[in-house]
Amino acid sequence: MKKGIIILLAAASGLTACNKFEKGEGDMTYKIYQSEGKPKIQEGDYVKLNGVQTVETNNNPDSVMVNTYDNERPAFFAISKSMFKGDLASGLKLLGEGDSAVFKLNLDSMEKYSGQPKPKGLKSNIASFTIKIEKVLHKGKDPDSIFEAKKRLFFEAEYKALNDKNKTVEPAKIAKYIEENNLKMTTAPSGLQYVIYAPGNSERATLTDTVLIDYTGQFTNKKSNGGLNVFDTSNAKIAKEAGIFSENVQYVPRGLPLGQLPQGVIQGIQMIGVGGKIKMILPSKLGFGESGGGPINPFTPLVFDVELKGIIKPNAALPLAK
């Protein structure tokens, strides 16, 4: 298990709640877990980091807002002038390359200066950031134009390394998911792997149809807490369990144009009729490919569980959600 994830789990288990935190700027408190003694981050530097942001809600003492480990995507952070005393930038300036720490920041100040509303149902007014600094590109005395070029080359090199790794490990990710879940998959000529749990009726959707589906999309890797790594779902219960529930989303079967879905999902849905249920594992070539999209990294295999609730022909009205 990676050292950064061990630190993450320690923080999530409540070990960061001890009284050994130091006082930083403003309302910030912090605890440094590891210090490599390298030059500290300065304003203008460019940083690659992994981190977890949690808040304490009425239902969960460690409700995760952001987790780069679960996303398998480090963050790249330009160190700008602090927006307020005790913000994350001021905390990062206490660290150097290879260092790790946890910072507790005031959510009122974050909301005031960032314009981003606080999460609902908070029990405390504190956000915790558990950070591991992976790499630092120091600006030094470089003119802005030269440093911008260096930043671009740095990011491109790191992004290429991430993509190369994802491409290499993709088959192993799929095999591990199948083994861990004890699945007996059928493989289509395209490379789509699937299990049909219920075939449904004899009707089949065509590319011009809109399909009404209940679905859950997830990554093959589990979250650090052992839960399903869900990135989208039409099921409220699953969304809450996965920590992605939003009050602004209607959790009902969704009508989606079949022809606009990823190729692997199209193929899977066309194997079942109304009332059918299918699990699909999409290799990236049938999903979001070498470019990725949104929370999905390049060369990322995806898992979809779909129940086909209805097929709407062109020019037919969508049924009202019950």
Helix content: 10-25%
CATH architectural grouping of the largest domain? Roll
Please tell me how large the radius of gyration is. 23 Å
User: What is the number of helical segments per DSSP (H or I, 4+ residues)?
Assistant: 7
Total E-strand runs: 14
CATH topology of the largest domain: Chitinase A, domain 3
Whole-number tally of structural domains: 2
Shape: elongated
Give the amount of beta strand, in percent: 25-35%
Distance between the termini: 45 Å
**What structural category arises from helix and sheet content?**
alpha+beta
Which consecutive residue ranges, at least 5 long each, have pLDDT under 50?
1-18
Could you tell me the mean pLDDT? Answer: 91
Enzyme class: isomerase
Catalytic activity: [protein]-peptidylproline (omega=180) = [protein]-peptidylproline (omega=0)
GO molecular function, one term: peptidyl-prolyl cis-trans isomerase activity
Domain PPIase FKBP-type: 208-312
Structure write-up:
The chain has two domains: 22-141, Chitinase A, domain 3; 170-312, Roll (Chitinase A, domain 3), CATH 3.10.50. Mean pLDDT is 91; it is low at 1-18. The chain is α+β, with helices and mostly antiparallel strands and 322 residues long. The longest helix is centred in the middle third of the chain and has 37 residues, at 144-180. Strands 1, 2, 3, 4, 5, 6 and 7 form a seven-stranded antiparallel beta sheet that branches. It has helices spanning 3-12, 68-71, 88-92, 107-114, 144-180, 236-242, 263-269; strands at residues 22-23, 29-34, 46-57, 63-67, 75-78, 100-106, 122-137, 186-187, 193-198, 210-219, 230-233, 254-257, 277-282, 302-312. The N and C termini lie far apart (45 Å). This is peptidylprolyl isomerase. It comes from Pedobacter suwonensis. It catalyses: [protein]-peptidylproline (omega=180) = [protein]-peptidylproline (omega=0). It holds the Pfam family FKBP_C.
